[in-house]
């Protein structure tokens, strides 16, 4: 399960950055492409985000995360590059 969480964390981080790129770069340069990509990118990111949160809660007891660590793992899903930090600091040596 931890390996799945690691992959989900990386994919969620990538989808977050791709969604931001679509919002900030493509929106101004190519509005038609922006509207074409918005729904599939948003849906993909949403599914990965929910998966990340659900997996974090399911791993809470088995990984013996304290409240501070768990809060960092959850908050990281809201910050660009946050899930990459979590994967490197908290998950790298555990899988």
UniProtKB/TrEMBL annotation:
Residues 2-90 form the DUF3817 domain. The keyword Cell membrane applies. Keywords: Cell membrane, Membrane, Transmembrane, Transmembrane helix. The chain crosses the membrane at residues 7-26, 38-60, 67-86. The keyword Transmembrane helix applies. Its main location: membrane. It is found in: Cell membrane. Coiled coil: none annotated. It is a multi-pass membrane protein. InterPro entries: DUF3817_TM. NCBIfam families: integ_memb_HG. This is DUF3817 domain-containing protein. The lineage of its organism: Bacteria, Pseudomonadati, Bacteroidota, Flavobacteriia, Flavobacteriales.
């Amino acid at each position: 399960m931890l390996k799945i969480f690691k992959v989900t964390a990386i994919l969620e981080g990538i989808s977050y950055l791709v969604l931001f790129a679509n919002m900030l770069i493509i929106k101004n340069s190519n509005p038609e492409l922006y509207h074409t990509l918005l729904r599939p990118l948003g849906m993909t990111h949403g599914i990965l985000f929910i998966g990340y949160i659900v997996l974090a809660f399911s791993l809470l007891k088995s990984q013996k995360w304290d409240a501070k660590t768990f809060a960092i793992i959850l908050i990281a899903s809201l910050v660009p590059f946050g899930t990459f930090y979590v994967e490197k600091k908290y998950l790298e040596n555990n899988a």
